[in-house]
Amino acid sequence: MINFETLFKISYGLYIVSSGSKEYGNGYISNTVFQVTSEPPQFATCCNKNNHTADIIQSSGLFSVSVLQSDAASGTIGTFGYKSGKEINKLEGMEIKYGETGVPIVLNDAIAFLECKVVETYDVGTHLMFIGKLVNADVLDDEKDPLTYLHYRKVKKGVAPKNAPTYIDITKLEKKSDVKEKNKHQCPACGYVYDEEKEDVGFEELPDDWVCPVCGLEKEDFIKI
Ligand code: FE
C-alpha cells in the first residue's frame, strides 16, 4: 500500500525553468530540478508534456533554471505556475536576462541561475525528463535563502498544480477535515483561502472573471479544500 503522505517527506526546491530565445520564450514552475552528475555538471528537470515549455525545450535544446528566493512573490509563482504560455506571454513584463546560449533567464525573485544545453531527453510517461549540461551559472544574491517546496507548502500554503510530477490528488489522502472545511476554496498559487462562512457570496456564485485578491489567479484554478 502507498501512504501518499510519505511523498511530502521528500525534499525539493522551487524553480522557474525557462526556454526559448530572444524572440520568444516561456517558463514554468518546477520543483524537480536536480544535479545528476558533477563531471561534467549535468542537471535534470521534468516537464509535463502538455506544458508549452516542453515543446520549446525540445525545439531549442536549451533550458535555464532560476532559483527562487524563500520570500518569492506569489504573483511570480502564480504567473509561471498557474498560467499557460499558450494563452499569455509569461515573460512579458518580467525581468529577463539572456544567457550565453540566448536562452531567457527570469530574474524576478531569483537568487541564482543555471543555463543548460539538453544532452538527453527521456519519455517518462506524462512527463519528459530533460538532462542538460551546465554551460553557465551564477549567484545573484548570496544573502537570501532558496525557496524550498516544504516552505512553499507550509508557510506559503501553496500546492502542486496538476501538471507537476509531484502532484498529489488530495482525495487520496486520509480525510482529516471536517464538514466545515468543505466550504473553503484555496488559491494554489498564494494560499489565499476563500471561506464561504466568512463571505456573503458562495464561491460558485462569484463571477467567472473573479480573481484571487492576493495574487490575481483566476477563479477556475482555485481548489476546494
Ligand atoms: Fe492567490
What does this entry look like structurally?
The protein has 225 residues and is mainly beta. It folds into two domains: 151 residues, Pnp Oxidase, Chain A, CATH 2.30.110; 47 residues, Rubrerythrin, domain 2 (Single Sheet). The chain contains three helices and twelve strands, in the order E-E-E-E-H-E-H-E-E-E-E-H-E-E-E. The strands form three sheets. Strands 2-1-5-8-9-4-3 form a seven-stranded antiparallel beta sheet. A three-stranded antiparallel beta sheet has the order 11-10-12, with no helix packed on it. A hairpin with a 3-residue loop joins strand 8 and strand 9. The longest helix is centred in the N-terminal third of the chain and has 9 residues. The chain starts with 14 loop residues before the first strand and ends with a strand. About 2% of the residues have low confidence. The chain binds fe (iii) ion. The site of fe (iii) ion has 10 residues, from helix 2.
